[in-house]
């Protein structure tokens, strides 16, 4: 039996995260999903939101790493969680002002209306959700 999970978060640009963790909480399409070692195999849609990776083993006791993730998919097995997403960032690397600005720009573009295709509207909505996820992740401990 596995005591930990290998958590991997992959975007089109890079592997954002690849470490052993004790537990993962991810934003699923039906709400938060808590994943421990030996979880039943599962494929699920990931919503834009905060992902929490808990590490209790070596290092700081009860350490948590907070990441913001965009929409994507997760494959879960007994000892592995693989997340494929367009966007992901560690909360320590988030520029709060830039996230606020990106959210405001996307909201303004949606409000303007005009010639917005369905695909552009969806992309703007996802940009807003991802910006909000970044802000929540950055402010998680405040």
How far apart lie the N and C ends?
36 Å
Work out the helix count.
2
Write down the secondary-structure element order.
EEEEEEEEEEHH
Gyration radius (Cα, Å) is 16 Å
Concise summary:
The chain has two helices and ten strands; from the N terminus they run E-E-E-E-E-E-E-E-E-E-H-H.
Using brief descriptors, characterize the structure shown.
2 helices, alpha+beta, 40% strand, 142 residues, five-stranded antiparallel beta sheet
Task: Explain this structure.
- This protein has 142 residues and is of the alpha+beta class.
- Helices cover 27% and strands 40% of the residues.
- It contains 2 helices and 10 strands, in the order ββββββββββαα.
- It has helices at residues 96-112, 118-138, and strands at 5-10, 15-21, 23-28, 31-35, 42-46, 49-55, 63-69, 72-76, 80-85, 88-90.
- A 5-stranded mixed sheet has the order 2-1-9-8-5, with no helix packed on it.
- Helix 1 (96-112) packs antiparallel against helix 2.
- The longest helix is centred in the last third of the chain and has 21 residues, at 118-138.
Write the layout of secondary structure elements.
Elements: E1 5-10, E2 15-21, E3 23-28, E4 31-35, E5 42-46, E6 49-55, E7 63-69, E8 72-76, E9 80-85, E10 88-90, H1 96-112, H2 118-138
Parallel strand pairs: 1-9
Antiparallel strand pairs: 1-2, 3-4, 3-6, 5-8, 6-7, 7-10, 8-9
């Amino acid at each position: 039996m596995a005591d930990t999970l290998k958590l991997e978060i992959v975007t089109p640009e890079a592997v954002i995260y690849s470490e052993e963790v004790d537990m993962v909480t991810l934003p699923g399409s039906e709400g938060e999903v808590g994943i421990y070692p030996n979880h039943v195999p599962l494929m699920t849609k990931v919503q834009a939101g905060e992902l929490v990776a808990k590490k209790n083993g070596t290092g700081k006791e009860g350490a948590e790493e907070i990441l913001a993730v965009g929409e994507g998919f997760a494959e879960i097995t007994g000892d592995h969680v693989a997340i494929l997403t367009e966007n992901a960032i560690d909360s320590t690397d988030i520029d709060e002002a830039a996230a606020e600005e990106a959210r405001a720009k996307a909201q303004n573009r949606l409000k303007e209306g005009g010639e917005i295709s369905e695909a552009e509207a969806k992309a703007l909505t996802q940009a807003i959700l991802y910006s909000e996820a970044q802000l929540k992740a950055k402010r998680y401990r405040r």
